[in-house]
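Work Package 4 report. The design task specified in the project plan requires that, given a folded chain encoded as structure tokens, an amino acid be chosen for each position. We show below one input record used in the internal validation round.
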């Protein structure tokens, strides 16, 4: 799967794999960016599984994992490629190095 996605994991990456009907569909690779910040090193889906909501589930997995670790921010560790990935992350305000807060806002 990792080779098909075009990502070579680093030893410090933690991977979560998404499955659909017992087939690996995609993965998110997480890494600590600094003391209070979690980073997404890579998030990708195989082409035939795009548009099914799996990327949002993988992003939610990253948020949940980093919250459990007590981290307060989430950032992308590399800029997403232009196109669909860029639009996907922009929907969640994940653009640029400031990232997003993982602390829930109660209104």
């Amino acid at each position: 799967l990792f080779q098909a996605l075009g990502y070579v994991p680093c030893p410090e990456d933690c991977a979560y794999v998404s499955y659909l009907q017992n087939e690996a569909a995609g993965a998110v690779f997480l890494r600590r960016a600094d003391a209070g910040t979690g980073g997404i090193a890579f998030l990708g889906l195989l082409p035939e599984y795009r548009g099914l909501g799996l990327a949002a589930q993988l992003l939610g997995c990253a948020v949940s994992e980093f919250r459990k670790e007590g981290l307060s921010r989430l950032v992308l560790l590399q800029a997403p490629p232009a196109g669909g990935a860029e639009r996907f992350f922009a929907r969640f305000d994940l653009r640029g190095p400031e990232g997003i807060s993982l602390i829930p806002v109660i209104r």
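The CA atoms of residues 43 and 94 lie 13 Å apart. Validation will be extended to a larger panel in the next phase.
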